[in-house]
Amino acid sequence: MLVLSRKKNESIIINDNITITVVEIRGDKVRLGIEAPKEVSVHRREVYEAIRNQIQRTEG
Fold first, then answer.
1. Which of 25, 29, 30, 53 has the fewest CB atoms within 10 Å of its CB?
2. How far apart are CA 38 and CA 46, in angstroms?
3. 60 pLDDT above the threshold of 80
4. Rounded distance between C-alpha atoms, residue 12 and residue 5, angstroms
5. Which string of DSSP letters, residue by residue, matches 6-59?
6. What residues have CB less than 8 Å from 42, skipping those under 6 apart?
């Protein structure tokens, strides 16, 4: 795992076409802005896992 430190309004770039920007830091919460092509799915981890579990139940 790569760990980076960023301040508010600083960004990281992934694969030339995905930008993640720190929008706000409030206490122990960080708000991130994500710019990615429409064909790239972006989900919170718990949502992603729920989708995967639903697919597995449907296929199984």
1. 29
2. 21
3. no
4. 10
5. --TT-EEEETTTEEEEEEEEETTEEEEEEE--TTS----HHHHHHHHHHHHHHH
6. 34, 36
CA atoms within a 13 Å half-sphere pointing along the CA-CB vector of 28: 0
d(CA 30, CA 8): 9
Digit-coded pLDDT (tens) for 8-59: 999 999 999 999 999 999 999 999 999 999 999 999 999 999 999 999 999 8
Q: Please report where in the chains the tokens 């770039």 appear, as a residue.
A: 13
Residue 22, strand partner residues = 32
Can you give the pTM of this predicted structure?
A: 0.82
